[in-house]
Amino acid sequence: MATLRDIIRNKPWMGWILFCATVIVVFLLGLLGSSIVERKSEALMVYTPQVEHGQYEPRNEVWGENFPRQYQTYMKTKEGSFKSRYNGNEMIDMLEVDPRLVVLWAGYGFAKDYNQGRGHAYAVEDLRNTLRTGAPVDGAKSPMPNTCWSCKSPDVPRLMDEVGIAEFYNGSWETKGHEVVNSIGCGDCHDAETMNLKITRPVLTEAFKRMGKDINDASHQEMRSLVCAQCHVEYYFNKKRVGAEGVPYLTLPWDKGMTVEDMEEYYDEIEFKDWTHAVSKAPMLKAQHPGYEVYMTGIHASRGVSCADCHMPYMSEGGQKFTDHHVQSPLNNVANSCQVCHREETEQLLKDVYTSQDRIIENRDKLEELIVRAHVEAKFAWDLGATEEQMSEILMDIRHAQWRWDYAAASHGGSFHSPVETGRVISTGITVAQEGRLKLARLFADLGHNEEIPYPDISTKAKAHEFIGLPVEKMRADKKEFTEKVVPEWLKKAAERESTYTTKTIN
Ligand code: HEC
Ligand code: HEC
Ligand code: HEC
Ligand code: HEC
Question: Is the Cβ atom of 188 under 6 angstroms away from ligand 2?
Fold first, then answer.
């Protein structure tokens, strides 16, 4: 066989072709190499810290100087124009959409005002604006404790570090209004030094401990859900905590488990109630938002998918892959949120989500009506002279039925996250509500009443408020005074305090 040298000796032009080809290949390799180096240095530029700050730096914009992409996408949680069939980021007045809620929550803050959740950047503002926090002007107190700030801001871990956990929860809500001013952000989920995910809320760490688990053992993938579980969970205010008696200490009722029955048993055993119902006098439970608990019972959780996979998918920009911090309805971003795992068309995926939601909501509506009827009938029974003893079992049925309804309704996203479990919870609620109404029917027979109890006209929010006798117009006027007078004072004080914070500029 001829060697390369023989070939070139016979046909010198072959040598020149080989030479040129080599030069071209080397040149292209060089280009590739330089482009890689460029991209790498771009990456380095992004992650070279611009400022140095501590863990308790509450200002998102300061962390944002080091991580502009994450910060800029986080700021998109301010957007407010996306609407899916049932959710989205618009501020929707849910009491207007469904006036039955006013009756279900009669005697409790949510009957005053309840809007659909918006983006994380609004958390502090929306808490100030809701009628539930009242209008603490001129020394008047808010009906809510400081515990309500817990899931709103990176000022919370900062304050807990300064004054202690129980002392943070202590006192009425307006006493820390000038302290909690930065909306949910970087310091809530991240370690300042490593930028690893971090649990900053003691409520979750404490709940894990009582279940015999150490949250520090959680895997990276679990952490991508647990950072959300710091807030998107069912909770209550425990005023009997040893060592912090009288303080509304934020607590998760998970000691017996996370199902609707486990938590119900937990609350019944300690005879806890959130409030006494203004119409029926039942000892009520308010399910807050057991989003994590319900999610964990669904197919995605069982396949190891985390909250961040759908609500904070990866995106890429300028050769950089990073986490989209625009936490929102994944239906506004099906390509990144779903289609990384599913091959189906957007249309089909939307249809899957909406079909689950439609089915669940159909039954949830029926349960709501049953519970409204039960409250109204219970009041009628009291008015006819029923005794505590005659009413006690009925009131417990009302408590349990509404707890189940609320567990399903308030587990935002639950109809998609875990449709079978959500459907099950609602159907057990329907059974319990009907049992209560059967007992009521028997009681009416005993009391000599055999006509149907009329269903009130609660076709609008205004009519429902009139039915339960709540003066919302007055509350709204007071709120206006509060936002004009008190909030600017809070902001001024906060700005003065923050002007003393030190951060070190590195470059
Ligand atoms: C520090 C508490 C906190 C943490 C941590 C938190 N959230 Fe939230 N989240 C909230 C609050 C409060 C709201 C409602 C804000 C409002 O309506 O003003 C909210 C709203 C939302 C919404 C509705 C947004 C919209 O546009 O309608 C989604 C979705 C959401 N959170 C998902 C998540 C996910 C996923 C995580 C974890 C990666 C997470 N949250 C972590 C407190 C928190
Ligand atoms: C609700 C919780 C939450 C908040 C608030 C949050 N992050 Fe993140 N962040 C995450 C999650 C989840 C990841 C993905 C981490 C992983 O899988 O390792 C992440 C990843 C990151 C990363 C690693 C690189 C990347 O993009 O994956 C950086 C840097 C970061 N976040 C910066 C920020 C900054 C800056 C802020 C404030 C503007 C912020 N984060 C607010 C949850 C949060
Ligand atoms: C990280 C991967 C991943 C992402 C992201 C993801 N899914 Fe899934 N999804 C799965 C897996 C795995 C299953 C279970 C399928 C199986 O094992 O057969 C599943 C199941 C489903 C099912 C069937 C549910 C059932 O009850 O059987 C639907 C519908 C679905 N996903 C819709 C979505 C939508 C909509 C999104 C975006 C909002 C999404 N998925 C995002 C991995 C993912
Ligand atoms: C497989 C994808 C997927 C995962 C994983 C997932 N979600 Fe969702 N989530 C959705 C979809 C889809 C909706 C319905 C959005 C809609 O109707 O617009 C939703 C709705 C929500 C909502 C209500 C949003 C709104 O606009 O009001 C919240 C809050 C939420 N999810 C939080 C969480 C939390 C917390 C976790 C983890 C414990 C989680 N999600 C895990 C897909 C997911």
Answer: yes
Provide the CA 344 distance to its chain's centre, in angstroms: 28
Round to whole Å and give the CA distance between 406 and 429.
10
pLDDT tens, residue by residue, 156-173: 999 999 999 999 999 999
Q: Is the CB of 330 under 6 A from ligand 3?
A: yes
Rounded to the nearest angstrom, the distance between the alpha carbon of 261 and the centre of ligand 1 is 26
**Domains of the chain by residue range:** 53-231+306-329+471-498
Q: Is the CB of 232 under 6 A from ligand 2?
A: no
Please tell me if the CB atom of residue 60 comes closer than 6 angstroms to any atom of ligand 2: yes
Q: Which ligand 3 atom sits nearest the alpha carbon of residue 337?
A: 37
Nearest CA to ligand 3 atom 33: 338
Q: Is the pLDDT confidence value at 36 over 70? A: no
Which residue, 442, 440, 450, 470, is CA-closest to 280? 440
Mutate which of 194, 325, 327 for ligand 2? The one with the most ligand atoms within 8 Å of its CB, which is 325
CA dihedral 408, 411, 415, 419 (to 10 degrees): -70
Contact by Cβ (8 Å): 414, 294: yes
Question: Using an 8 Å Cβ cutoff, are 415 and 361 in contact?
Answer: yes
For residue 289 the two structure tokens come to 């938002």
The b/e string for 255-285 (b: 16+ C-beta within 10 A; e otherwise) is eeebbbeebbebbbeeebebbebbbbbbbbb
Q: How confident is the model at residue 26 (pLDDT cuts 50, 70, 90)?
A: confident
How far apart are alpha carbons 113 and 94 in whole angstroms? 8
Indicate whether 392 pLDDT > 90: yes
Phi, psi of 286 (to 5 degrees): -105, 115
| Architecture of the domain spanning 53-231+306-329+471-498 | Orthogonal Bundle (1.10)
- Whether the model pTM is above 0.85: yes
In tens, the pLDDT along 294-319 reads 999 999 999 999 999 999 999 998 88
